[in-house]
Amino acid sequence: MPKPFSIPDLSDEVTLARYPFLPQAKPWIANMAAKHEIDIDELLDGTMMDRARVRARSRLVDSVDSKDGVEMASIGDIHTEEGRLLEAFSFYYARLVVGASEDERLISRWAQAEAERAQHILEKDDAISLIAETYVSEVRCEEGIWKVGLSDFIELCTGITGSRWRLPNCDINDGWVTLHDEGDKYSSRGKMARLLRERMKDDIKMDALEKMEKMDESLLIRLSEPVGMIRGLVASKTAETIALIGAGEEDWPPCMRKAVAELAEGVNVNHFGRVFLGSMARCIGLPAETTVDFFRSAPDFNEATTTYQVGHLYEREYTPSGCSKLKVNHNCAVRTGDDRLCDQSWMDHPLKYIRAKQRRRKQQQSIEVDVNLPKTGDA
Ligand code: SF4
Hints:
4 strands, 379 residues
């Protein structure tokens, strides 16, 4: 695709923090990480990055939940170093989470939302000139009217609906397309920002897919909780079922199976166990009706009450409790030696169990495919 041979220098830290996906932001983020000693452990679990993870969560939730993309306003002051750190590393963390989901649809959705957010800021930000030069090979602005080279325009407008973006309706002169100002309806700058969104989206998506390819198993497992949160949200928004993530019953952790089995036998599972089961079911994308069915044989089952309580759990997007709380509340199903995965030192959350099970099954399947492939020279 036509992209500039060289990208303009950009050293304004506010701009880099606002658009952390820019190619110019990479060395800046690396410097910030070195300066503040932010490594992967700090980003995933450290207290300094607490607020960045909160902001990342809202970036992710907005990408699923909001029609207008990610909320523009940062939760910190971007004119301070702390605010810039927050903005840049929340993006970085959110990208890790979508990468760890290994779900290309989720990655596309997130890239779209981040690009939309950037588009809305660019409509008012003078950095639009530098960013346009970063992404578009032929672009210029004369007295507030933007012009784009024809080949760039053709490529960028294919993903945009609306008759004004179709070539026969465009003002093309000498290989340049003029983005006319339509006043309050659609400004020339607004049109430029809209075109840029397409390229920003592609770049954000490509970067996240690259991260996904490079993700190792331990990182995938460490990110299980936020991935579960966002997948649960996607599932509840799109009414997708368990097939979304393929967590079949064989992948469920023993604590979840225990709760389901006990309820089926009419055993009275305690409140903590019930909330855990409901939130696990939501996270793995089970429809609310299936979750209600788990409780049907419970001694105190009441259809209306259970439907209401499960609905409440799904709406509030509860995240399941971790192993330590489940153990304290007598909802853990194993003792040392019962289950090899539960015995692992890193096992502190049932969602990690599911993730590890899925990974192992996937690896097992690829080994089986290898074994079954006819060897070269076989008759
Ligand atoms: S160790 Fe954790 S994942 Fe395993 S059964 Fe207990 S609570 Fe569930």
